[in-house]
Structure formats: C-alpha cells, structure tokens
Amino acid sequence: MRTFGLLGRSLAHSFSQQYFRQKFNQLGLTDCRYELFELAEASELPQLLARYPGLAGLNVTIPYKEKIWPYLMRVAPSAALVGAVNVIEFLPDGGLAGHNTDYVGFRESLRRFYPPDASNRRALVLGTGGAAKAVAVALHELAIPYQLVSRGPHGAGLTYEEVTPSLLASHSLIVNTTPLGTFPAVAERPPLPYAALTPRHYLFDLVYNPRETSFLQQGLAAGAHIQNGFEMLELQAEAAWDIWTKQ
To answer: Mind listing the pLDDT tens digit for each residue in 207-223?
Structure first.
C-alpha cells in the first residue's frame, strides 16, 4: 500500500484527503491511500517516518512549510526560489526532497482570475509566512508589483494600520495568505478598511474552507471580484502528484 498524506498542526479544515481519495478512485488505484498527519512540532517528523515506512509522498501545510527544511536531503529549485516547501518527495536512497507547487497553483489560478488590463494593477499580500512567499514569487513572475502586510513591522512591508482607504484604492488585487477565516473560526478576517472596496477590486483568498470567507464576503458586498483557494489547491495537488509519480 502506497501511503500519501498531509503534514500540519491542525488539519480539520483540509480537503486534501477527500481530493486525493477521489483521485485514487477515478484512476482505479486500490493500492493508494491518503492520510492526515497532525504533528505538534516539526521535530516529530522522524518518528512519523518510522511509524509509516510505506510513505510515498507528503504535502506540507502551515506552520511547517519552512520548519521542515532541516529534514530534507535536497531542495528543488522551486522550493529554493520560494523559500518554503509544500511537497516532500521520497527519494530512492531514502532521503527527502522538498518542492514547492503552491506558487505554480496560485500563479495559474491568478492568471484566470485577475485580468491583465485591470486598473491599478498592484497587489497587497496579507501575511508573511510560507504561503505569502509563494504568492510573492508568482506575482514577480507575472510582473505585478506588490507589498506585504502583516500585524507587526516586517522588513519593508506594511502593518495593517498603514493600510488606508487611499492605499486600497491604488491596489486592485488583495491576496489573503493568512489562515484567518478558516473553518471553524469563520468570523475572523484580516483587519482592513473594507468600506473602501469597490467593484474594481479583486480579492483572492488562499483559504477554501469555507467557500466564501468573511474576507471574501466583504468584497462581494462591495461588488468586488472574489476567488477562493480551491482551484489553487487542485492545481498544486496535481503538480504534487506529478512529482510523486514522476510524470
């Protein structure tokens, strides 16, 4: 039995297991299973590997996309470019290789969502974790200028207190890379001046459970365009499957 799975701290919100189980069923793969592995700390990974010698591939989610690096033998160019890992490949010699398919999934989903002729084609990226790094790489590849926003001072980025209505007016794309609003804490959302949103804004939330987060609902109420992270999930999952199966 080939075992695949997802590493994270709290995984009740995840659709990855359902997605891959459906994929295995569609492909007629009766020798594959996909499990959820909740770890209290990244340091528990060696014990997990010892308990599951049949592991054939892993996805990685918050908060371990950066903390998993010490356990990798090799880092693929995609992960080195982003600075975060969301896919682990099991090498023939027993070592682990880290990849990043998040940025590809986001990039391709954004291409379909955010038109090249949008006004004020600049982005505010909410959050500074591993997912934000993937988003930043994708935005750079698409030549979309961006600024990072976080709760506290972070390099050259902004704090939420610095996000004014006029700043929102000059950035038509807002990307939430934080877990705020994820089930079951669905009332949470990033602290923004939502009254300044207009139909010219595009709100992309990497969260996909619930389908419409409080962040996206605020955008919808203002007539803005909205997109959740489910298509990104599908695209990055297919890229991960290609890595695991060498397609």
So the answer is: 999 999 999 999 999 99
